[in-house]
Design a protein that fits this description.
By secondary structure, the protein is of the alpha+beta class. It has 2 domains: 2-50 and 335-401, no CATH class; 63-290, Orthogonal Bundle (Cytochrome-c3 Hydrogenase, chain B), CATH 1.10.645.10. The protein is 34% helix and 13% strand. The chain has helices at 54-58, 66-70, 80-93, 99-125, 140-150, 159-175, 195-215, 217-223, 254-285; strands at residues 2-5, 8-11, 15-19, 29-35, 41-48, 300-302, 305-307, 316-318, 321-323, 342-345, 378-380, 383-386, 398-401. The strands form 6 sheets. A 3-stranded antiparallel beta sheet has the order 3-4-5, with no helix packed on it.
Length: 409
């Protein structure tokens, strides 16, 4: 049966498959798809299955404390929600932060950006393309040659190194304690990497664990900890004493700044010698997956970030703008304050607005829960078999820019 949803037709025929929970993301997510006799997906519905109600938690609190609550939205992209919060309060109050505070925030933000790309590719995504079990068939000498071919500057490339990694994989698999890998789909024919590429990728997966462990130490120096580093309205909560040492009590001194520089250089070497070559090498063998899903080829939106001059959005290294319907020749300006541009809708979310279905700008937003399932759902409220996507089906609101669904991030 075809049913309309936001001007699109959803094909609910065929076999319904439910994945709940969807892992490797932050939060709680459920996905339902309809597949035809050829196992082609004809309809997909994703739903957020948890209401955290942070907007409600913040009511009545001092705006200067909001960053500490909203930061808990995610422990992976940790810090960005806090930084957005303190910037919003500073914008509302007309606060200009000191240059050193701006630079420290800049370092923390870019540290997170690099960290997130590495974690996403290796630890959240790579196992869709890399088969650790197949790596046991690899020839370490041939793997070393492959490493030298795609990135000769990476120091960890000897046959002995890859033989040691292969031994670690073998011991791990033979132990029977596979943990999160226990339900892997290692025999799936969709895997395309040869054994040597799998062994090299697993080695880099393990190296990336060390890389992310080191780079987040930048957050611990400037923000006190990671995840959820500390911020504050008006600046940053770390004292500076360039003449002191670690025993002076000031977290930012020449010793700690040199430590930060070392971590930055290590991360830069990893990105150049490992991450970028791996992305290119693996993508080369999965070209049929490069079609670009979602809205990436049509509607994209950026608020602008990485501002060079404090308070001057025209100096954003990643500028703001919107592209509609894949027209890359026209970049639309974005005004986050305009209530007619960014709005949140709850037509298909388990909330209700006092004015009905009309969208609300986040400044005017309402978060009043209304958990009700559509007439065509299957199961019970505590044991849902299938959702009814023609009605309310998620705890996630639907943000729109001038009425358009947009891809961000």
């Amino acid at each position: 049966m075809n049913t309309p949803l936001n001007s699109k037709l959803l094909d609910s025929s065929g076999r319904r498959i439910v994945v709940d929970p969807v892992t490797r993301i932050e939060g709680h997510m459920r996905c339902e798809v309809n597949v035809d006799d050829n196992n082609i997906i004809r309809n997909a519905v994703s739903t957020g299955t948890m209401w955290r109600g942070l907007e409600v938690i913040l009511k009545g609190r001092d705006p200067r404390d909001a960053w500490a609550f909203v930061e808990r939205i995610c422990g992976v992209c940790t810090g960005c929600h806090a930084l957005t919060s303190v910037r919003a309060v500073e914008d509302a109050l007309g606060i200009d932060i000191p240059l050193n505070a701006h630079l420290i925030r800049h370092l923390m933000d870019k540290t997170l950006n690099i960290h997130d790309h590495v974690v996403h590719f290796y630890h959240l995504h790579a196992l869709d393309w890399v088969n650790p079990v197949n790596a046991l068939k690899a020839d370490p000498k041939a793997t070393s040659a492959l490493q030298q071919k795609i990135s000769s500057s990476h120091p960890l490339s000897s046959p002995g190194y890859f033989r040691d990694v292969q031994t670690r994989i073998k011991k791990f698999i033979e132990s029977g304690q596979l943990g999160l890998f226990a339900n892997g789909y290692w025999s799936n024919p969709a895997y395309k990497l040869p054994p040597e590429a799998d062994l090299m990728a697993v080695a880099h997966y393990l190296e990336a664990l060390d890389m992310q462990k080191e780079i987040v130490k930048i957050h611990t120096i400037f923000g006190g900890k990671n995840p959820h580093p500390n911020f504050m309205v008006g600046g940053v909560p770390c004292a500076i004493n360039l003449d002191g040492t670690g025993s002076s009590g000031a977290p930012v001194n020449m010793t700690s700044l040199n430590f930060v520089l070392e971590r930055i250089r290590e991360a830069e070497a990893f990105i150049k010698n490992v991450y970028i070559p791996d992305v290119i090498a693996i993508a080369t063998l999965y070209k049929d997956w490069l079609y670009g899903g979602g809205l990436a080829a049509s509607n994209v939106l950026s608020y602008g970030t990485h501002t060079v001059v404090p308070g001057d959005k025209s100096t954003d290294l990643i500028p703001a703008g919107a592209i509609i319907n894949g027209n890359w020749d026209e970049i639309h300006p974005v005004d986050v304050r305009n209530p007619d541009e960014i709005q949140e809708f709850v037509d298909h979310s388990w909330y209700q607005y006092a004015n009905g279905a009309k969208g609300l700008h986040p400044w005017d937003g309402e978060t009043e829960a209304k958990f009700e399932l559509g007439p065509n759902f299957k199961g019970t409220k505590t044991n849902i078999k299938e959702l009814d996507e023609s009605a309310k089906y998620s705890w996630i609101k639907s943000p729109r820019w001038k009425g358009h669904a947009m891809e961000v991030g």
